[in-house]
Design a protein that fits this description.
InterPro entries: Enolpyruvate_Tfrase_dom, Enolpyruvate_Tfrase_sf, EPSP_synthase, EPSP_synthase_CS, RNA3'P_cycl/enolpyr_Trfase_a/b. The chain is α/β, with parallel strands linked by helices. It has two domains: 234 residues, UDP-n-acetylglucosamine1-carboxyvinyl-transferase, Chain; 184 residues, UDP-n-acetylglucosamine1-carboxyvinyl-transferase, Chain (Alpha-beta prism), CATH 3.65.10. The protein has twelve helices and 24 strands. It has a five-stranded mixed sheet with strand order 1-2-16-18-17. Strand 8 and strand 9 form a beta hairpin. Helix 1 packs parallel to helix 2 and helix 3 packs parallel to helix 5. It is globular, with a radius of gyration of 22 Å. The protein starts with a strand and ends with a helix. The structure holds shikimate-3-phosphate (S3P) and phosphoenolpyruvate. The site of shikimate-3-phosphate has 14 residues, from helix 1, helix 3 and helix 5.
Length: 444
């Protein structure tokens, strides 16, 4: 961090989603990959341990780089006793690894923290059953913990309902490339949430030598190949993936910065007195949470790019304005936008984010309850939040984290309104951003 001419400069942490995918793709490869910039956090530790339990060798070097020796497309499970995979609190680890192990041989037990056992996985399991896996549920059907037994992914034509999580699609795509035959994966149900995370999966699969063809339905009802990079959101029945059997190829790769965890600092720039600049973020990133820039700009913040990175400062004239925004594609930045909205001069309406209720906590209710404590006028809707201007009460306040990293990280932005939140479990940030509090000191 450097401070010069009232500008605070911060290096963005590594992308959580791309780190998960890079280590998974490397672990499915034949041979050794060297990855740089891989996030160090509790969620990543769990993904790496799960991959080790399937036979991959993963070593973190003293320079922070990660060396992965893969399993050549066949994760190895147990024969007399299932391989043990503890996904802890990480939905990404749980859903992506469930796909990955289905491509293996043997049995795998997937379990996690109590909240993980309340986060669904039934829609993914149903498709994997059609592709040859057998699930034995230990608790409630459709939720971890469970034991998955498999002799590989058969291939064929299947459909997945991605209305509650895109992670089901990502898990299936990663697995299908190790299948015996081509898999044609369609989308069923009413909607597809969090589409940009599917694009991140497609990006990493292409990088590791297993490109996926994506087809869209034309006006005559025929599926034709399209450039998946141009898809902004997929529509059930209209988008289809064609995954041919392939071999993940080991490689050296670098992980880019994380737009979700950058959002707290960018929002602090918009609501504070000094601009904040972040380096390490790609302007052309496929991460959906890059939307934070457009949202802050629409609220009136000053946004600019230079060779040093992206800079966000408070509005030049007047106060921040409210915004009306569908956040189906970028759920993780809803808490950030909600806290900025509480400091704006007009109404904000956030919609499209019903899937926030099945994250590490019910984030719609969590944000409503905690923002209300400081005087914000917040209504929870089925799929979002409505926030109206109201005077906020400065001073210290006890706040709940709900054990969910994004709740304290986002509520910290209230410090720019003279509020000092005191959190019950501040350490929960280590899920995705163990150095958050240290870095936050720099913007105080
Ligand atoms: O695939 C991923 O890396 C993720 C997908 C998103 O989940 P959903 O698709 O369940 O919304 C996001 O919320 C999560 O933090 C990371
Ligand atoms: C929802 C999140 O992660 P996951 O689904 O991997 O638990 C998150 O990081 O906000």
């Amino acid at each position: 961090m450097t401070t010069a001419n009232d500008l605070i400069h911060i290096a963005a942490p590594a992308s959580k989603s791309l780190s998960h995918r890079a280590v998974i793709a490397a672990a499915l490869s034949e041979g050794k990959s060297r990855l740089t910039g891989v996030l160090q956090s509790v969620d990543l530790d769990h993904t790496m341990d799960c991959l080790r339990a399937c036979g991959a060798t993963i070593v973190r070097n003293s320079d922070g780089s990660v060396e992965v020796t893969g399993v050549s497309g066949t994760p190895r499970g147990g024969e007399s006793k299932p391989a043990d995979l503890d996904v802890h609190e990480s939905g990404t680890t749980c859903r992506l690894m469930t796909g990955v192990v289905a491509a293996g041989r043997g049995s795998f037990r997937i379990h996690g923290a109590p909240r993980m056992h309340e986060r669904p996985i039934g829609a993914l399991a149903q498709v994997l059953e059609n592709l040859g896996s057998v699930f034995v549920w230990e608790g409630q059907k459709g939720f971890p913990p469970f034991v998955l037994s498999t002799s590989g992914v058969s291939g064929g034509s299947v459909n997945v309902d991605a209305g509650e999580s895109s992670q089901y699609v990502s898990g299936l795509l990663l697995a299908a490339a190790c299948g015996a035959e081509t898999t044609r994966l369609g989308l069923s149900g009413e909607k597809v949430v969090s589409w940009p995370y599917v694009a991140l999966t497609l990006q990493i699969m292409e990088d590791f030598g297993v490109p996926v063809e994506v087809e869209e339905c034309d006006e005559n009802g025929n599926f034709v190949a399209c450039d998946w990079r141009s898809i902004t959101h997929a529509v059930p029945g209209k988008t289809r993936f064609v995954v041919k059997p392939g071999r993940y190829q080991s490689r050296d790769a670098a992980v880019e910065g994380d737009w979700s965890n950058a959002s707290y600092f960018l929002a602090a720039g918009a609501t504070g007195k000094r601009a904040i600049e972040l380096s390490g973020l790609r302007q052309d990133s496929l991460q959906g949470d890059r939307a934070i820039l457009d949202i802050l700009e629409e609220m009136g913040a000053e946004v600019s790019w230079s060779e040093n990175g992206v800079k966000v400062g408070p509005p030049k004239n007047g106060a921040l304005r409210g915004v009306t925004v569908d956040m189906a594609a970028c759920p993780d930045i809803v808490p950030t936008v909600a806290v900025v909205a509480a400091q704006a001069s007009s109404r904000t309406v956030i919609s499209g984010a019903a899937h926030l209720r099945i994250k590490e906590c019910d984030r719609i209710e969590a944000m409503r309850s905690q923002l209300s404590k400081v005087g914000a006028k917040v209504q929870a809707t089925d799929d979002g939040l409505i926030i109206d201007p109201a005077p906020l009460t400065p001073g210290p306040v006890d706040m709940k984290s709900f054990g969910d990293h994004r709740i304290p990280m986002s509520l910290s932005i209230l410090e720019n309104a003279g509020i000092q939140p005191r959190f019950d479990t501040p350490e929960c940030v280590s899920k995705s951003f163990p150095t958050f509090w240290e870095m936050w000191e720099n913007v105080r």
